[in-house]
Amino acid sequence: MQIEEHILRKANQWLTPAFDDATRQHIKEMIENNPEELTDSFYRDLEFGTGGMRGIMGVGSNRINRYTLGKNTQGLSNYLRETYPGQQLKVAIAYDCRHNSDTLAGVVAEVFSANGVQVYLFSALRPTPELSFAVRHLECHCGIVLTASHNPPEYNGYKVYWTDGGQIVPPQDGAIIEEINRLSFGDIRFSPDEKLISYIDKEVDEAFIAASVKNGSFNAKDKDNFSIVFTSLHGTSITILPEVLKRAGYENVYIVEEQAEPDGNFPTVKSPNPEEPEALAIALQKAEETGADMVIGTDPDSDRLGIAVRDTGGKLVLLNGNQTMVLMTRFLLEQWRKEGKLTDHTFIASTIVSTPMMSAIAEDYGVEYKIGLTGFKWIAKMIKAHPQQPFVGGGEESFGFMVGDFVRDKDAITSSLLACEIAAAAKAEGSSFYEQLIQMYVEYGFYKEHLVSLVKKGMKGAEEIKQIMTGLRNNPLKEINGSRVIRIEDYQGSVAKDMLSGEEESITLPKSNVLIYHTEDGSKIAARPSGTEPKIKFYISVHTRLPSADLLDETARKLQKRIDHIVAELGING
User: Fold this and answer.
1) Structurally, how many domains does the chain consist of?
2) CA 151: distance to chain centroid?
3) What DSSP string describes 291-345?
4) Domain span holding position 119
5) What CATH number is given to the structural domain containing 88?
6) Best label site of 63, 183, 342, 437, fewest CB within 10 Å?
7) pLDDT 10s digits, 413-460
């Protein structure tokens, strides 16, 4: 394989004295023996996506390493000094169970301290939502989490949070990125000021646990008659969630011991992602052995939540993120209504690729429904932009939920507790989590969603994803599964077009590479390249009336058949 000139030019920049001997030696070996790896390591610079910056760990500009993260941190330090002149800057840093997360967190702490920033570094791994909480609790100017969420073991990442506890959003993220891009690697200050690095743990843990219990507990009855199987999938929730459940009154909690030890290899699962049914297989088996009512599984940094509950026949079934989101949202709204706190200014929130049922729920309760781009940073931005409007809760289809605004990111810790409260309260009343979900389908319509993720790795994969999106834009589908396309929303072009009248209207949300088709029969198909993984995702939503709970299975089969036809017609079944 011939090394392209621009790749070689970038690689040669990493052979200068600004880089350590091991890095330079590795690059020399790639130039001589592995041009394919060299190309993938340097064909682009890692960029901030939906959930911060993520990438494979290794040497090069397209890798997570001390230099790419050091440059981020140096640029962020410069931006902080410009934004808050004359102030003693403070930053909180957390990290997850991944390989090198603790080492990379130490590098980030050192660079911040070398720039005169007071650093509060967690002494051991902690959940991402606790970092979001800690930023406000410690009155920090920003926060960093070293995590790649549910990505494969070779990945790591860097999330940036601001003073409100939410991740950075435009125009601020653009300004920070510009500052980073102005730097050379030689500008990074790696010499730490140890006096400015403090370690945090129990005090912040205690405050976060108390806040989680306060926001996620609603005095459900008969908790001693409710049992839970919990797996942390080798991640960080093991440090906090068992104590949260205990303090909320749940004593019958069975921990999956095979997956309780934090381990960046994730040895018992193909993917540590609670969206994947296989990830919860061991927990489901334990639930059958113990007769548990519910299974809870969280991803490595504890922001995503997967659950399984028993259906009307007593069989354990996995729920998707949309299903848990609508039930949690309605439960919270019902509690707020009982307490007389709901007004027309109160709001719930979700994202453009999540279930449309959220809109129906908001209308029923007379609250505002705000909708944003994919990622909880947009929900955090809504809260920050509308401080006079009380936020009840909200989420997105990717197994994330936020209970209130004390954490400004998806929070599997508090959401796990909330799910238990809903299920325990329902059981005490002779119902169940699953039966309440069916009742919602009867009231609001049966919405059924399906996600297809196509993996496209490397430079070639990135080009394939680009071509797919270009094709959907330049040659729009006129009908899908026999139903006319009536509206197309292009969030990159900021235009929504009525395909029947030809009329166009502007989309006011920030630009994003998302395309959404709406059909005459109410189907919704969204296409979007992932902002954190080498994937293109297709989100399919179909719905119909459900006259009674007795017709659930029959109606579910009809909706699934419609989804199958859409997948086959689009040629996205992998």
Assistant:
1) 3
2) 11
3) T-SEEEEE-TTS--EEEEEE-TTS-EEE--HHHHHHHHHHHHHHHHHHTT---TT
4) 44-199
5) 3.40.120.10
6) 183
7) 999 999 999 999 999 999 999 999 999 999 999 999 999 999 998 888
